[in-house]
DNA sequence: GCGGAATGTAGAT
DNA sequence: TCTACCTTCCGCT
């Protein structure tokens, strides 16, 4: 379930399990055998996340080497304590501890799993916009792009060069929370609107890391507060519009709409998100 | 068993 | 704007 919050959470979890320890690496499925062999037995120095990109650092000269992982649409990185179970399915990369206490992590279905140098890692980061989950993020860079763009704000929010880490759920939900029509051009956003969106993304995504799921519904609109039955979507959190096409809006009761935008299904409430 | 969908992106056209 | 790709799961036959 990979938007930026998943990756940052993963970086923290993997750092906790493997950071500072020698690690065994293999590719049971075989498609990353070469890369796994190169880091096998080396110490994992730390995990870093930028947007939806995960970097696992391994001890070595000149900044060491990095495994660069992008989960794509359906990649997963499952981890747990104890010795690794017998491999099931397509495991691109398996990490496990070399000694007790034992832990393991299995990567399946990633868009990207490759070995990079320090310089190459920086090149990946340099292509990304500010990440609301990073302390070094500069929202001014995003505003510079958005405020000059005729592209819709819904497409801009999905563009990782503009903002890194926002995906289809956060885009739909943050626009709903700010009553913004997703089809408005970036340059028609006001500075105040952008500042509010950014601040909200920082809060929502931090909460996403903490809870490991996306919750966006304000206290006054929760099922209890609104007297409606509790509902939790497959993605695990409570949301206003994401994947709720045809259902009544939690706030106004109008029907939530969907349409393809920027290669993904957009969801919005036509009444709450006008002009 | 098959088809489609899924929190994504790169590369071709 | 499109297509390909990575993998799993769910609903339909």
Task: Please write out the topology.
Elements: H1 4-18, E1 21-26, H2 33-39, E2 43-50, E3 53-58, E4 65-70, E5 76-81, E6 93-97, E7 103-108, E8 112-117, H3 118-126, H4 139-146, H5 153-158, H6 168-177, H7 191-211, H8 223-226, E9 257-261, E10 264-268
Antiparallel strand pairs: 1-2, 1-6, 2-3, 3-4, 4-8, 5-7, 6-7, 9-10
The structure holds a DNA duplex (13 and 13 nucleotides).
Structure explained in plain terms:
- By secondary structure, this protein is α+β, with helices and mostly antiparallel strands.
- It has helices at residues 4-18, 33-39, 118-126, 139-146, 153-158, 168-177, 191-211, 223-226; strands at 21-26, 43-50, 53-58, 65-70, 76-81, 93-97, 103-108, 112-117, 257-261, 264-268.
- The strands form two sheets. The protein has an eight-stranded antiparallel β-sheet. It has a two-stranded antiparallel sheet with strand order 9-10.
- Strand 6 and strand 7 form a beta hairpin.
- Helix 1 runs parallel beside helix 7.
- The protein binds a DNA duplex (13 and 13 nucleotides) through residues 1-3, 5-6, 31, 52, 70-76, 89-90, 92, 108-112, 158, 160, 167-170, 214, 234-235, 242-243, 263-265.
């Amino acid at each position: 379930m990979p938007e930026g919050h998943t990756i940052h959470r993963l970086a923290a979890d993997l750092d906790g399990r493997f950071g500072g320890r020698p690690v065994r690496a293999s590719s049971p499925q075989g498609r990353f055998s070469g890369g796994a062999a190169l880091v096998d037995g080396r110490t994992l120095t730390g995990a870093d996340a930028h947007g939806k990109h995960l970097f696992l650092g391994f001890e070595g000269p000149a900044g060491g080497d990095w495994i660069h992982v992008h989960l794509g649409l359906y990649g997963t990185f499952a981890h747990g304590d104890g010795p690794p179970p017998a491999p099931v399915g397509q495991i691109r990369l398996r990490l496990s501890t070399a000694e007790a206490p034992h832990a393991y992590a299995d990567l399946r279905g990633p868009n990207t799993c490759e070995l990079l140098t320090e310089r190459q890692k920086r090149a990946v980061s340099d292509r990304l916009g500010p990440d609301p989950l990073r302390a070094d993020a500069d929202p001014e860079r995003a505003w510079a792009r958005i405020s000059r763009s005729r592209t819709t704000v819904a497409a801009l929010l999905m563009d990782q060069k503009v903002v890194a880490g926002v995906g289809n759920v956060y885009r739909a939900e943050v626009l709903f929370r700010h009553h913004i029509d997703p089809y408005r051009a970036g340059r028609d956003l006001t500075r105040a609107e952008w500042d509010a969106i950014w601040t909200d993304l920082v809060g929502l995504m931090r909460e996403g890391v903490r809870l490991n799921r996306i919750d966006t519904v304000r206290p006054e609109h929760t099922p209890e507060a609104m007297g409606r039955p509790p509902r939790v979507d497959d993605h695990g959190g409570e949301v206003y519009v994401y994947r709720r096409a045809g259902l009544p809006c939690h706030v106004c009761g109008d029907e939530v709409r969907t349409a393809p935008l920027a290669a993904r299904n957009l969801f919005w409430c036509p009444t709450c998100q006008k002009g």
